[in-house]
Amino acid sequence: MGIANNQTNVRLRAGIEELYNLWKQRIEERRPFQYLVGCKHWRDLVLSVQDGVLIPRPETELIVDLVADVVSNNEGLREGLWADLGTGTGALAIGIRRILGNRRRVIATDLSPVALSVAAFNVQKYGLQVSEVIIVM
């Protein structure tokens, strides 16, 4: 990769052949690329994703922004209990919990055992305790 005549070496985690095969698989199976690589960049997070769990959309970031605006003007809402129904990857639960601050609770629930497993992994990945984001089925 050359930038303005300066040469920069980029190290790949996978070989060109493997990357080509992944891209070919994505096109042939019409699978989202995030499922192939197993992650989705969302806000300032890198969330684990897998088949059977919806990939967080950029538009859902607006929900976290809305919560931030609402709780900044109302301390009572900051103290309340928040719920993420159909949590999927846990993106909203994690994003809202990070905005609410310490000792606040968010309940994340989903009917899918796969989604709950992915959400629990993502919650732990970002150092949240089980009592901070409660995963329930």
Give the gist of this structure.
It comes from Quercus lobata (Valley oak). This is Release factor glutamine methyltransferase. With 137 residues, the protein is α/β, with parallel strands linked by helices.
Keywords:
single chain, 137 residues, alpha/beta, Rossmann fold, 3-stranded parallel beta sheet, two-stranded antiparallel ribbon, globular, RF_glutamine_MTase_cyano, Release factor glutamine methyltransferase
Please outline the helices and strands:
Elements: E1 2-3, E2 6-7, H1 16-29, H2 33-37, E3 39-42, E4 45-48, H3 61-72, H4 75-79, E5 82-85, H5 91-100, E6 106-109, H6 113-125, E7 133-136
Parallel strand pairs: 5-6, 6-7
Antiparallel strand pairs: 1-2, 3-4
Description:
- With 137 residues, the chain is α/β, with parallel strands linked by helices.
- The protein has one domain (38-136): 3-Layer(aba) Sandwich (Rossmann fold).
- The protein is 43% helix and 18% strand.
- It contains six helices and seven strands.
- The strands form three sheets. A three-stranded parallel beta sheet has the order 5-6-7, with helices on one face. A two-stranded antiparallel sheet has the order 1-2.
- Helix 6 links the parallel strand 6 and strand 7.
- The mean pLDDT is 84.
